[in-house]
TrEMBL record:
InterPro entries: cNMP-bd_dom, cNMP-bd_dom_sf, Env_Response_Regulators, HTH_CRP, RmlC-like_jellyroll, WH-like_DNA-bd_sf, WH_DNA-bd_sf
Native species: Hydrocarboniclastica marina
A Pfam entry, by short name: cNMP_binding
Name the record gives this protein: Crp/Fnr family transcriptional regulator
Keywords, sorted A to Z: DNA-binding, Transcription, Transcription regulation
Residue span, HTH crp-type domain: 159-232
PROSITE patterns: CNMP_BINDING_3, HTH_CRP_2
Length: 256
């Protein structure tokens, strides 16, 4: 008889002022007396089970969202129906701002059982006009979305599979550090197929690179649990890759 998988426990649904993610989310732009105004507009629905859509590509835009627990991926479908993964969102991160022009340009799906806060954008926009600090923070978030798209383009233009995967691991490391969690030991919320899609690689290539990084004793993998054994070495590997004139002979060819 197959074992019944244990679903991850979700955090208790608390107010913004008591949420452990308040220093990463919209409340960081507010003074304590203004917190109830934001609290009044936030919707907290039942948990999203793995695979449930938060919103769909071309769907009408009405809200932005914050991950409280779990993880969410965004993707875009081509006219032929091919899926291209655009990004992954972790607790404390805001998504859905792609739809401010009227409709969503992508689909958002829960990668695992997730708790998500929904914030109706028209109400948030009105609140932002009343609270300049919140408005400034919203502009910063929108700018971050644009910057993120540009950084993804740069990531996919890198010459080697190793560089792309190391970049992803280091990005996840820094995002966990922002939440005051371990930057060197964390769980990958996405399967290897999603990693391959996001980075423009074959699944087999992702597996080979992970194996190579383990043999180099730079990382340790146990299922989706990853440990960065040599964080500085991984960072230096990317710095060296950015200076091809100083790169070790044969590095590029070995990493494809």
């Amino acid at each position: 008889m197959d074992a019944i998988p244990i679903r991850p426990a979700l955090p208790e649904c608390t107010g913004c002022d008591r949420c452990s993610l308040s220093k990463l989310c919209l409340p960081l732009a507010l003074n304590t007396p203004d917190m109830p105004k934001l609290e009044a507009v936030v919707k907290r629905d039942a948990p999203y089970e793995r695979g449930r859509k938060v919103f769909e590509q071309n769907g009408a835009f009405s809200s932005c969202y914050v991950v409280r627990s779990g993880a969410v991926k965004t993707s875009m479908a081509s006219e032929r129906g091919d899926e291209k993964i655009l990004g992954f969102y972790l607790p404390g991160e805001i998504f859905g701002l792609d739809g401010v022009r009227g409709s969503h340009s992508c689909t958002a799906v829960a990668l695992e059982r997730s708790s998500i806060c929904e914030i109706p954008f028209p109400t948030l926009e009105g609140l932002a006009r009343e609270l300049p600090d919140l408005q400034h923070h919203l502009f910063k978030l929108m700018s971050r979305e644009i910057t993120g798209a540009e950084e993804l383009g740069m990531l996919l233009s890198k010459n080697t599979a190793d560089e792309r995967i190391v970049s992803l691991l280091l990005t996840l490391s820094s995002r966990h550090a922002r939440r005051k969690l371990s930057p060197t030991s964390f769980r990958l919320p996405m399967p290897r197929g999603d990693i391959a899609n996001f980075l423009g690689l074959a699944v087999e290539t992702v597996s080979r690179v992970f194996t190579r990084l383990q043999k180099q004793e730079l990382i340790r993998l146990n299922g989706r649990q990853v440990e960065l054994l040599e964080l500085t070495a991984l960072q230096n590997q990317l710095k060296q890759a950015a200076r091809p004139d100083e790169a070790c002979p044969g590095y590029a060819n070995a990493s494809r």
